[in-house]
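Render Alginate export family protein in 3D.
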Amino acid sequence: MFHDLKSTFTLRGATVAGLLLLGTGLSAQEHQSYLTATDLTSTDMEYVISDDSSETLATHESVVSFDNLDSMNNAEAKPVVCDEKKKKELAKAVAGAYKGVYFDNNFNYLCDPCYNDWHLGENMKRICVGNCGVFDLGGEYRARYHNENNFRGLGPTGRDDNFLLQRLRVYGNYEINDWSRVYAEMLHATSEFEDFNPRPIEENYWNLQNCFADIKFLDTAEGEYWVRYGRQELLYGAQRTVSPLDWANTRRTFEGIKVFYKGTDWDVDAFATRPIYPTRDTFDSPNYDQAFYGVYTTHKANEKHKQEYYWLGFENDVRDFNYQTLGSRLYGNLGCEGELLYEAEAAYQFGHFMDDNHNAGFFTLGLGHEFDHCWKPTLWAYYDWASGDQVIGNGYDHLFPLAHKYLGFMDIFGRRNITDVNFLLTAKPDPKHQLLMWYHIFHRQNDEDAAYSVVMTPLGNNPANPFVAGSKYLGQELDFMWQYNISAHSDVILGYSHFFTGSFFTNPANPDFPYKGDASFFWAQYSLRF
């Protein structure tokens, strides 16, 4: 695979450089900008259905494993055995090459002498740059159709809309050696045919999503120490607190510094950043009125029982709040064959909200079972709880999560002043088909507080003075999803959701919701990674 590319790389490298300059140059010259972030979820079902339990729980290893290029060139020749076991290992590596953040992608399988397959874009990966490292060029095209019935906007509004979202991502990854690299990624997101104004997360023209440099400053027998500086996406744990929000047509990103350690038993990240909110027609810039920082640790010594611990700080000078969040997550499997699954995550949040003290929190408890059947059905029962408060807006703040995933795919509710009893069923009839059904029962946690949207604002026509009386019962949601894997790097997903409106919304005394009926959502998505 590492045959002499010296003659062809000049042209290819010029093309790559031109593409990267085009993406960043347009952004700089046109000074693009965009709106803010509402929340939906990553529909990649690999976060929900996977043969690997760590992927099932949407875990994330936050550091790239760089190959020692010298060892590749100087390794002694060894007999190569390309048996069935090896072929299965390679097939798994191909299917898992693209990660939740593309700077963690792993294409080292291309260097394996047993690999003789081909997928779109592989000829642009692991390109030798003379004796100065390797280069990857890749990306993704995604299109998604929405049919929103009676919930265009935030909550059950009674408005309908049909539209098409399209997104293009192109990245370049240059690994100079085994202790340094640079990475850049461009994103272009559009929305067409909408009757209403696009949501803030639906459009962003030719902007810089990631652009950073990595340096390894210490290498010990226990692990490696790295520093990363620049624009970067963040993804941790099950993404209940920190996520790039892949469901959004735009993706969430930050700008700042991160120091991280990857060891045999522990991964530790410490970061200090400022959020970046998309502005469609101008170049995205950090919000200097806000700061997001923290430490996230993962203990991975025990494959069956993993632990995560975190401290996250979020400050906003304009809205005048300061939230400090201390949390942990435990997950794994029990039983002789690991058929019993569990997950628990909880966090306590303190600080101040304008002139009030802030004391809040959330927890999630889940118990699952993987059945011994050819379809690999897995059933989970979850309970989600997030605090509200008598002061509007002073309940738990969900920070920067993958909000779309956990509280219904219709994105009606955010993780504040809510309880959710929910049941998740997944199945995999064969390697190409994956199925999901998720059922939710929602209530307000505090009957003196409002119901909240995925952007942490009170639902209804009057968010400054929302309706808080009446029933706690918000309603029920039923989600269905089917995924067909066309190839290892291409898939089609269909989804349908229905929200059964609860008595909080149907209450005749509630003036914030003139529409009292149910709502539904159909969507179809195509993705191609290259």
